[in-house]
Design the sequence.
């Protein structure tokens, strides 16, 4: 039995593993809605949405002190009388009363596609004691993800095929095979039904506001990491008057288009790999050359060799180049996972791909029985292709690949060709890249890490510069996101803001 990488199970905030069945039989029926006493601020809600904003949630015990329920929302907010979707919600209630009880804090771990329910279930790891003492901790699986009404885009066998495929093609035959595989994702998602056209972030933001209302909160208190910062930023833009204490950690810059996002992220992963090999060189058991340039070249050579000859593993599945890209990139999300990358690279350099395969499986949420814990691998494409897919032809993808390779000689081709997924997406994009201002919103705390591989620090600077009420907290460090990843300085400043409303000083650094 392959051991699941331990550090990766909790260290990388943007990719939390696992999902759960929340309620027997899928939970309460979404219709009819049972009305609750309205929150005072909901008087201005559009009448057609009032049944959703006023619904009474049916909470049940679901273990570990948590309560679970289902939230009903319209599939299409332009047609609230039409089909509905059922979303999974979990909460851990605080024992605080009176002035000590500050309401709910809603968590979003990122993705797109990573379930928020399991992230909230890890509350003791992802939130400090003082925060949990004052807030109910709430997790929501966004529409199309986790335990919510899901997209069923690919079965497990086709997901395996997609992840193992040559995603950095070298010739025309490989390009067309990769295009055929990525096109299957869009066709599979569209076959899910009406929901597939409405899993974009702006629609998810409306769901988040319904959740806020039915929880009984006048304003939303929110911790979003990675993609969760994009959700939070768009919420602040759409509902500035309902923003409570917002922490956006590992920020995405909403003003950047597809290619800018991809190129900046490619450079971020390359920089993170450089930081890793320098750290590895300080360890006695590092399997890479001491010189950083030579060490990175050795990793690239391994990836290139896997393109020609996959490595055997302790399973029937070989380690292909496509899987190895995930195996190398995922541990760069958290410095605590670097030792596992070192062990996996040592084994791979000795001819055993089992370690890198285990890491790739952890990234994808692949279970040991061959299934997948959730649909994160395909949901990310469904959301991104609806949100702001600007590259829409194969020719545009081809033209962009050299730019990606320049930004990241190691990961560039892999990331550049990944854009091909949206070329054949059967549903039109409904979002666009544009700056957010959220004029009138309460103060928002944006947190950026200087050597973050997945959400580069420049994105946090960009978001903080756009939001009218933002304050930027800089974490000088490695890894993806900063809060509760090892910096007591960051933790103290974030928690002082969440609990007492005290913002860090201008220019604060940890």
Sequence:
């Amino acid at each position: 039995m392959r051991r699941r990488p331990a550090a990766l199970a909790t260290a990388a905030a943007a990719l939390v593993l696992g999902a759960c069945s929340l309620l027997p039989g899928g939970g309460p029926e979404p219709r009819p809605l049972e009305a609750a006493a309205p929150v005072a601020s909901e008087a201005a809600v559009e009448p057609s949405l009032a049944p959703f904003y006023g619904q009474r949630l049916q909470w049940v015990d679901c273990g570990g002190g948590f309560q679970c329920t289902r939230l009903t929302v319209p599939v299409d907010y332009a047609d609230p009388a039409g089909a509905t979707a059922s979303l999974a919600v979990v909460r851990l209630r605080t024992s605080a009363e009176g002035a000590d009880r500050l309401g709910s804090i809603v968590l979003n771990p990122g993705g797109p596609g990573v379930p928020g329910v399991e992230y909230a279930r890890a509350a003791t790891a992802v939130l400090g004691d003082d925060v949990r003492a004052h807030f109910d901790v709430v997790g929501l699986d966004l529409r199309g993800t986790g335990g919510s009404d899901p997209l069923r885009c690919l079965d497990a066998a086709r997901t395996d095929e997609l992840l193992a495929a040559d995603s950095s093609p070298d010739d025309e035959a490989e390009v067309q095979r990769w295009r055929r595989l990525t096109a299957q994702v869009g066709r599979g998602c569209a076959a899910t039904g009406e929901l597939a056209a409405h899993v974009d972030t702006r629609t998810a933001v409306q769901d988040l506001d319904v959740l806020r209302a039915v929880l009984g909160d006048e304003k939303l208190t929110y911790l979003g990491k990675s993609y969760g910062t994009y959700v939070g930023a768009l919420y602040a833009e759409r509902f500035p008057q309902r923003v409570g204490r917002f922490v956006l950690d590992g920020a995405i810059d909403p003003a950047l288009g597809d290619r800018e996002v991809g190129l900046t992220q490619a450079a971020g992963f390359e920089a993170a790999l450089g930081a890793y090999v320098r750290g590895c060189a300080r360890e006695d058991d590092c399997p890479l050359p001491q010189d950083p340039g030579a060490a990175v070249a050795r990793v690239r050579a391994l990836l290139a060799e896997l393109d020609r000859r996959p490595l055997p593993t302790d399973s029937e599945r070989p380690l292909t180049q496509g899987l190895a890209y995930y195996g190398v990139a995922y541990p760069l999300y958290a410095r605590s996972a670097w030792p596992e990358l070192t062990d996996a690279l040592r084994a791979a350099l000795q001819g055993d791909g089992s370690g890198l395969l285990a890491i790739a499986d952890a990234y994808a949420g692949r279970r040991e029985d061959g299934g997948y814990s959730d649909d994160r691998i395909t949901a990310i494409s469904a959301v991104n292709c609806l949100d702001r897919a600007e590259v829409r032809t194969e020719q545009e993808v081809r033209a962009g690949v050299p730019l990606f390779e320049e930004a990241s000689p190691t990961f560039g081709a892999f990331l550049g060709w990944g854009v091909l997924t949206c070329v054949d997406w059967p549903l039109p994009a409904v979002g666009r890249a544009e700056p957010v201002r959220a004029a009138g919103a309460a103060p928002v705390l944006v947190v950026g890490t200087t050597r973050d591989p997945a959400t580069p620090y420049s994105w946090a600077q960009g978001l903080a510069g756009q939001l009218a009420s933002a304050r930027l907290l800089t974490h000088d460090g490695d890894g993806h996101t900063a809060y509760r990843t090892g910096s007591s300085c960051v933790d103290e400043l974030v928690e002082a803001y969440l609990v007492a409303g005290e913002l860090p000083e201008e220019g604060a650094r940890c």
